[in-house]
């Protein structure tokens, strides 16, 4: 993908772009697989694992890796269909049992494999153990991927007959292109792949793999074909060399991901058994029956064994999950991802699908640094919230208004009757809506509060200077008569130059310092309290509102946290999510604003309001061609705000950064931002801005 300010090579107009079809592909994959998959460009594959296949695609347990652009066909419709076909093939590995491969079953079914000495195994997957049966495991891995891919393609077309049309269209494209093959064994594998796709190519390996497309073929038939191909190398006249290519995340690692899911299910079963045993033990102890005195003890012994098994499985899961995360990267199973454009102010163009945004819900984490107890948060805002709520209730719409020109009502509408009579006189069909009725007034407002959760929100608020004159001195500079502070005690004993705390007070109370630090208020505390105060006021007048946080690090990891969705009822979960708002990483505002705009558009309210609460200018590690450049981020954010205004959304930015005028005047219209000098003014600032935007 192109970097900022770099002129791209434009694909043909008929090409399909992953950024344009990503949302529909994610829904398509979720409908097929029954679970969400991130749609990512093939360039995001782990380093050193490119897929040399024509479809340039791969997958792991939580993502599909697809080409950034597909221009294989002359029409955009066919190219978009090619994305769906490619996704189907990748999902087919899981659907048609590739990762259910069991080495014991394979050795039982494949006689030639039983003749080979089983390798030593530790934590490897069964597929990895299968590859280790051979002297050239990399070649076995490549052959297995090619042969298993052919089996999965055939199974996909049988299960989804509509896909066959696009498979044949892709085959026609392959037939019309000239293919150059490598020398040696690598070229033989390439010919096998082409032959299994249906191309008129002769391959010495094809004889062993012809049956994998049969209706009853399974993963063990593919393994048998690989074994036959590897055995045939003994009679191959050329030197047996290893293939130097891999197939994206290697299949054995993907099987370990599937195995981890099975272990999670086993862990849930053990937890359920332990819970039922605890209930049974309580009942037995409460209703002891003569002759069954030893029964509770037996249950306790069984429970202890299950608890030990559960703890061992939990440790194994944690180790395996850590290993997979290091190898395949963070999966983000609880998040959904979206691609957004970014404005490059230097080249004056949009970077298509440049940023990936992950949306996930905020959950209470007792171990998270910077979090807050929900009840303490509620108690902190209660005095101010009551006052704000009362002010909003005073201007809440009340009463009724008369709606004219309706088909059914309690009164005739005189103006409508006159218009209808006039139409009849001139021979025009009259409007039959000649009634009026009383309707209750209702506000139709949707508001989004977008809260900056960058690391700088963890800064402690500056205490206002105290101007307390000395009780015994004067403001004219006379000396104070108060007792002078006693001099600091000299440290006892010789100075230890290796002790960094030698000069500290020997009577230092670390617990008191910890409590003092905890009581010092930070920017994030003010932000949480401000949005919670506003939520109570909006509940009083019935406006829809959503509360979201944003942060992230880099264009591939913009984080969008959901505390409350538009239309979601305010409850304990929302309060806990607000309390879980903690300082995160950087401040890439553009994608977060564009995602919030999409949510407001989906709400469908007549008046839409976007309020951004921040403590500084937009910045990120790669927000611009040079690290540390600020103008690029400011201009992208300004562009996102102009896009929101063009969509009919009222925007407003509030910052506690005292230097905010420098960049906000370039980002926002003059009357659409506010810089507050003291953080405690934030709740009042939000209230005033909201009333201004919604014309209260």
Please sum up the structure shown:
The chain is of the alpha/beta class. 45% of the residues lie in helices and 13% in strands.
Task: Fill in the keyword field for this structure.
696 residues, alpha/beta, 5 domains, eight-stranded mixed sheet, three-stranded mixed sheet, 21 helices, 13% strand, globular
Biggest sheet, open or closed, and with what strands and sense?
8 strands, mixed
Based on CA atoms alone, the radius of gyration comes out at 34 Å
Structural class: alpha/beta
Distance between the termini: 47 Å
CATH architecture annotation name of the largest domain: 3-Layer(aba) Sandwich
CATH superfamily of the largest domain: von Willebrand factor, type A domain
Mean pLDDT: 82
Helix content: 40-55%
The total count of helices amounts to: 21
